[in-house]
Write a structure and sequence with these properties.
Elements: H1 7-29, H2 44-73, H3 77-86, H4 107-138, H5 147-153, H6 156-180, H7 189-201, H8 208-212, H9 217-220, E1 230-232, E2 239-241, H10 246-259, H11 263-293, H12 296-307, H13 312-315, H14 322-338, H15 344-355, H16 366-383, H17 387-412, H18 430-443, H19 446-458, H20 464-467, H21 472-484, H22 486-505, H23 517-520, H24 523-536, H25 541-562, H26 581-585, H27 610-627, H28 637-656, E3 667-670, E4 676-680, E5 686-690, E6 693-696, E7 701-709, E8 713-733, E9 736-753, E10 758-760, E11 763-772, E12 785-793
Antiparallel strand pairs: 1-2, 3-4, 4-7, 5-6, 6-12, 7-11, 8-9, 8-11, 8-12, 10-11
Length: about 800
C-alpha cells in the first residue's frame, strides 16, 4: 500500500500546538491586565515548553484515537487518520484570540470570553468526532454497544419505568441547579403552596391568618411581603384563595414531607412532587409516538425532545397546574383515540380525568374540557362495549363537577365560575358580572387580541418559538398532517383551537412564570405535529435544520437554569421592558439582539417593526416548506467540518470578540454645565436627585455607573462620602483603579483628567465602579451615601 504523506499534517499540529500555547498563556496573563495595561508579552521559555507539551498531546490523541476507532468500527487505520485530522481544524480559529484585546473592558470579562471560545472550539471538536463515529456505525460498526437495542428488548412496562425514572432524575437535576442559583417560588406558586400550608397546619382553606402571619416565608426563603390572592368567603372575616385548589391537594404530601427539613430541601421536595407529573406527561408522549409510528427510536427521540426542552422541562419543576392538565388531556386523548373498544371502566376513567380540570381552574380550562368531552362522547358512542359505558361517561363527570360546585358554594357562597378567579372582585353581583363579561367581549381592541396570539409564539420575553426553536418544525409537521391525514389534523385543531383562541381573545398573558404558559395545557398537540415532522423527514434539509434548532433549544434550557431570573419575565399589562433576559445574555456591547426581536407588550408605543416582520418570516418558512421537495441530502464529513469551522467563526464574532456587557434602560441626563450624557442600568438603590448626583441607600456592595458621551471626557469629577458615618470606598474605571479613600462623616472630592474610555460607535463609554464598604452607620433612606459625578467633555 502506498505510504501517505503526513508531513504537512504534522506541521499543522505544530501550528495548533503554538496556538494552544499562546492561548493558554494569554488566558493566564489576563488576570493581571487592566484597562490601560493589557499588553500580551509571553515568556519565550514558557511558549517553547508549553508548545512541546501540546504538540505531543495532540499527536498522541490523533494517533491513539484513530487506532481505537479503526479497531472499533473495522475501518482502515490510514483512512481514519485522514478523516480524524479534520476534527482538529476548528482549533485554528484560536488565532483570532488577540483581537479580543482591542475590545477590552476588564480582566474578568476577557477571561470569560476566552473560556467561552475554548468551549466552542471544544464543542466543534466533539461534534465532528460524534458525526464521524455515527457514520462509521451506520456503515456496520457499533457506537453504543447495542444500548438502544437492549432498551428496546425490555418489556413495555420496564421501558416505561426506565423512562419515567430518567425523566424524574433529569427534571430534579435541573431543579437543584435552579435552587443553587437562588430560585425558589414566584408568581402564583406561593399562593398555591399557601393553600397546602393552611390545609396541613390549620385544617382549613381560610388564608386570612396565613397571609397576615407571612407563612409563605417558610418556603420562599425571604422576609418580604407578597400581595394576598384572596376573596372574601361566605363567613364574615374569612378569606379564600381565588386559585382553585387542585394542585394544592396534589402537592400536599410533598409539602408535608418538605416541611420536616425546611430551607432549600423544602423547595427541592416540592419540586420533586411536580416532576412526577412532568415525567408522566413525557411517558404519555412516548406511548403516543410508539402507537402512531411504531418505531421505538422515533418514540424515544420524541420523548426526549418534548420532555427536556421548554416549556415542558420548566413546568415540570414549577408549581403550576398547566403541566398536570396537559398530562390529563393527553391521557384522555390517547384513551379515546387509541382504544379499539371502551369498557365501562375506561369510559368512566376518561370522564373522571376530564371533569378533574375544574379543580385546577374553574374558568380557564372550560374551552379545553368542552371539545375533549364532545370528542369523548362521540368516541364512546362508537366504541362502547355496552350502554353502561355511555351512562358512566355522562354521570361521572357530572358527579365530579357537582362536588366541586358544592365545595365552592360552601366556601364562597356562590356557584358562579367567576368566584374562584382573579375576576371575583369585579363580578360580585349579576350586574357586575354582565358588565365585566361585556368589557372582555367588546371593549378590547382586535389588535390587542391578535398581538396576544402572536405573542404566545413570538414574543421575545415568553414566546415559545424563541425559547424552544424546535417547535418551529411542529408547524411543518402540521402541514404534513394536513396533507396526509386531514381528519386527525382537523380533530387536533378542534380540540386545542378553542382553548388557544379564547385565551388570546381574552388577552391573557403570563406574569412571573416560565415561558409559554398559555400553551402548556395544549402543548401535546404541537408535540404530535412535531412527531409528524420527524416521521416524514429523514436526512432532508429541514431535518438537518431541525438538529440545529434542537441544539439551540437544549442550550437555552442550560442558560435559563444558569440564569433562572430570565424565566420570570412579566408580559401582562403594565410591563414596559421589551427585551428578553435570555436575549440580553446573547447580546454584546456592540450588538443588542433584543432590538431585532418582536415584543407584544401593551405599551403606548406600538410601532415595533419586528412585530410585523417575524410573523411574516414564520409564514414564509411554512410556505417554503410546503413548496419544497423533501429529498434526503447526504453531507460528507468534509461538509460537516466546514460547517463546524464556520460555526466557530460566527461564534467568535457574536460572543467572544466584543465585551459581554449589555447596556439597557438608558437615562439621558443634562448637567447644569450643559453637558449631555446617557446613563445605563442604574441601580434601584442609587437614587438620583440631581443630574449626576446619587444617594446610595445600601452599603457593603458595588455600584456600577455606565454612561456614554458624544465626545471624550476631558475632566471627570467625583464627590463621595456621608455626614453620618465612616466608609471605605474604592473607585475604578472599568478595572483600572482610580482612588481608594476612607471618609469619616465628611464628603470629599477628586478630579481626574482625561479618564480612559471605550470607543462605542460615535460615542465614548465610561464605566465607573464604586466598591462601597460597610459603614459604621448603615446607608439607608435616612442616611444615604453621596456619590456624585461632574463631567466636562473635550471641545469638538
Amino acid at each position: 500500500m502506498k505510504s501517505r504523506p503526513y508531513t504537512w499534517r504534522v506541521a499543522v499540529f505544530f501550528i495548533l500546538a503554538v496556538l494552544l500555547s499562546l492561548y493558554a498563556l494569554l488566558f493566564h496573563q489576563a488576570r493581571e491586565f487592566s484597562f490601560t495595561h493589557r499588553d500580551f508579552r509571553p515568556a519565550p521559555a514558557a511558549v517553547v515548553l508549553s508548545t512541546a507539551v501540546f504538540f505531543g498531546v495532540l499527536l498522541a490523541a490523533w494517533v491513539l484515537y484513530s487506532r481505537a476507532a479503526a479497531a472499533r468500527f473495522r475501518r482502515e487505520p490510514a483512512a481514519v487518520l485522514d478523516r480524524d485530522f479534520l476534527s482538529f481544524l476548528p482549533a485554528l480559529f484560536l488565532s483570532l484570540a488577540p483581537l479580543t484585546l482591542d475590545h477590552y473592558l476588564d480582566a474578568q470579562d476577557l477571561r470569560a470570553r476566552l473560556g467561552l471560545f475554548l468551549l466552542a472550539v471544544g464543542g466543534a471538536f466533539i461534534y465532528l468526532k460524534i458525526i464521524s463515529a455515527r457514520e462509521w456505525r451506520q456503515a456496520g460498526g457499533s457506537l453504543t454497544g447495542g444500548r438502544l437495542q437492549r432498551f428496546q428488548a425490555l418489556s413495555p412496562r420496564k421501558r416505561l419505568v426506565v423512562l419515567f425514572a430518567a425523566a424524574v432524575i433529569l427534571f430534579n437535576a435541573g431543579s437543584l441547579v435552579m435552587i443553587s442559583r437562588g430560585a425558589t417560588f414566584s408568581g402564583d406558586e406561593p399562593h398555591y403552596l399557601l393553600i397546602s400550608h393552611s390545609l396541613l397546619r390549620d385544617g382549613d382553606f381560610d388564608l386570612a391568618n396565613n397571609y397576615a402571619g407571612r407563612d409563605y416565608g417558610r418556603f420562599m426563603l425571604f422576609r418580604g411581603e407578597i400581595a394576598p390572592h384572596v376573596v372574601s368567603g361566605v363567613r364574615p372575616g374569612t378569606q379564600y384563595s381565588f386559585h382553585s385548589p387542585g394542585i394544592s391537594f396534589l402537592i400536599l404530601p410533598f409539602y408535608a414531607a418538605g416541611s420536616f427539613f425546611g430551607g432549600k430541601a423544602f423547595v427541592a421536595i416540592i419540586r420533586l412532587g411536580m416532576s412526577l407529573w412532568g415525567a408522566l406527561f413525557a411517558v404519555q408522549v412516548y406511548l403516543l409516538a410508539l402507537r402512531r409510528w411504531d418505531q421505538g427510536s422515533a418514540a424515544l427521540r420524541l420523548w426526549f425532545l418534548a420532555g427536556f426542552t421548554a416549556p415542558v422541562f420548566f413546568y415540570a419543576i414549577h408549581v403550576y397546574p398547566e403541566i398536570i392538565v396537559a398530562a390529563l388531556a393527553l391521557m384522555v386523548y390517547r384513551l379515546f383515540r387509541d382504544s379499539p373498544s371502551l369498557s365501562p371502566a375506561r369510559a368512566a376513567a376518561g370522564g373522571l380525568l376530564l371533569a378533574s380540570f375544574i379543580w385546577f381552574h374553574a374558568l380557564k380550562y372550560i374551552a379545553l374540557f368542552a371539545p375533549l368531552y364532545l370528542f369523548g362522547l362521540w368516541t364512546v358512542r362508537r366504541k362502547a362495549a355496552s350502554r353502561a359505558a355511555l351512562l358512566l361517561y355522562i354521570l361521572v363527570p357530572a358527579a365530579v363537577i357537582a362536588i366541586y360546585l358544592q365545595f365552592q358554594h360552601a366556601l364562597y357562597g356562590t356557584c358562579s365560575p367567576f368566584a374562584v378567579s382573579w375576576a371575583r372582585p369585579m363580578t360580585g353581583t349579576s350586574g357586575e358580572s354582565l358588565r365585566f363579561a361585556g368589557s372582555l367581549l367588546f371593549s378590547v381592541p382586535l389588535r390587542d387580541r391578535l398581538e396576544t396570539l402572536a405573542g404566545y409564539f413570538l414574543d421575545q420575553r415568553d414566546g415559545l418559538l424563541f425559547y424552544a426553536p424546535l417547535y418551529l418544525f411542529a408547524f411543518f409537521g402540521a402541514w404534513e398532517m394536513f396533507m396526509k391525514k386531514k381528519r386527525e389534523f382537523l380533530l387536533l385543531v378542534f380540540l386545542g383551537g378553542p382553548y388557544l383562541l379564547l385565551s388570546a381573545f381574552l388577552t391573557q398573558r403570563a406574569g412571573y412564570a416560565p415561558q409559554a404558559r398559555p400553551l402548556v395545557a395544549v402543548v401535546w398537540i404541537l408535540i404530535i405535529a412535531l412527531g409528524w415532522f420527524l416521521n416524514e423527514n429523514r436526512g432532508t434539509v429541514p431535518a438537518r435544520l431541525k438538529n440545529l434548532a434542537t441544539a439551540a433549544s437544549l442550550v437555552f434550557v442550560v442558560l435559563l437554569l444558569e440564569k433562572p431570573l430570565n424565566l420570570y419575565q412579566e408580559t401582562t399589562r403594565g410591563a414596559t421592558e421589551r427585551g428578553g433576559g435570555l436575549f440580553h445574555l446573547l447580546s454584546n456591547l456592540h450588538f443588542d439582539l433584543t432590538r431585532f426581536l418582536p415584543s407584544y407588550l401593551k405599551v403606548e408605543d406600538r410601532s415595533w417593526l419586528p412585530n410585523l416582520v417575524w410573523p411574516g418570516i414564520l409564514a414564509l418558512l411554512v410556505l417554503a416548506y410546503a413548496l419544497s421537495k423533501k429529498k434526503p441530502v447526504r453531507l460528507g464529513f468534509s461538509a460537516h467540518a466546514a460547517g463546524a469551522c464556520a460555526g466557530v467563526a460566527v461564534f467568535f464574532v457574536g460572543f467572544v470578540l466584543y465585551p459581554r456587557l449589555v447596556l439597557v434602560s438608558p437615562t439621558r441626563v443634562k448637567f447644569p454645565s450643559g453637558e449631555r450624557v446617557t446613563f445605563y442600568s442604574l441601580s434601584r438603590s442609587a437614587r438620583s436627585m440631581e443630574p449626576g448626583r446619587f444617594l446610595l441607600r445600601e452599603d457593603g456592595r458595588s455600584y456600577r455607573f455606565y454612561f456614554t458621551a458624544e465626545r471624550p471626557v476631558a475632566e471627570l469629577g467625583f464627590e463621595f462620602g456621608s455626614a453620618d458615618g465612616e466608609y471605605d470606598g474604592a473607585v475604578r474605571i472599568f478595572d483600572e483603579p482610580v482612588f481608594e479613600e476612607r471618609t469619616v462623616r465628611e464628603v470629599r472630592s477628586f478630579k481626574l483628567n482625561r479618564p480612559p474610555g471605550y470607543r462605542l460607535g460615535r460615542r465614548s463609554l465610561y464605566g465607573i465602579i464604586l466598591d462601597l464598604g460597610k459603614g459604621t452607620t448603615a446607608a439607608s433612606d435616612r442616611t444615604p451615601y453621596l456619590f456624585a459625578l461632574s463631567i466636562r467633555t473635550a471641545p469638538s
